[in-house]
Q: What sequence folds into this?
């Protein structure tokens, strides 16, 4: 079963198989995470890939959980945590800058079901579109995120937890024994603020 889908909904292989939904921002991050994983010829999406996806697709949102004066240092930490090479980083930045000049926010086309040719950024065959499963560590973090998700959505007469970026980041950062979690906390991540927003958000998620 593919754990992630499009437009914020977990993909299903059979009716009633979905376990949760992803808000649009997190779905965008998942797409980027999958591309990063495939660029390493990985068969799974690791926690570092998911953090990289959240960082690359929506740093503006993530940055709220670090002090503003620390942002440059934190970005350097995140690039190391996510294992993004300088060459790959420059490719992403060049692409994003081009999109901004065109007046379109990166990945916004996905909101309307659009698509781009990512082959210039990531070296894998475009036709190899098999969905990737999360690693065991990421799957465990996603399971915890389901438990703390404050919102539910009805699908096939079932209540599905709606996962947000904050829920997933909190569970990744709280993973016991994880090197990524340790480095996120040491970078100055404001866990109390993140916990508050994950469990008691001020606004309902935008799907």
A:
């Amino acid at each position: 079963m593919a754990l992630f889908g499009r437009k914020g909904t977990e993909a299903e292989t059979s009716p009633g198989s979905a376990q949760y939904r992803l808000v649009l921002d997190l779905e965008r991050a998942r797409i980027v995470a999958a591309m990063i994983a495939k660029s390493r010829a990985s068969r799974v999406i690791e926690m570092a890939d998911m953090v990289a996806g959240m960082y690359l697709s929506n740093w503006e949102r993530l940055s709220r959980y670090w002090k503003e004066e620390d942002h440059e240092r934190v970005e350097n930490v995140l690039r190391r945590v996510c294992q993004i090479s300088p060459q790959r980083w420059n490719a992403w930045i060049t692409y994003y800058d081009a999109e901004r000049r065109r007046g379109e926010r990166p990945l916004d086309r996905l909101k309307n079901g659009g698509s781009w040719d990512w082959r210039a950024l990531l070296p894998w065959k475009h036709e190899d579109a098999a969905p990737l499963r999360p690693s065991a560590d990421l799957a465990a973090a996603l399971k915890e995120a389901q438990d703390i998700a404050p919102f539910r959505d009805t699908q096939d007469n079932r209540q599905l937890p709606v996962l947000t970026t904050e829920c997933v980041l909190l569970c990744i950062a709280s993973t016991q024994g994880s090197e990524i979690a340790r480095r996120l906390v040491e970078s100055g991540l404001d866990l109390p603020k993140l916990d508050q927003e994950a469990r008691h958000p001020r606004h309902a998620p935008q799907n």
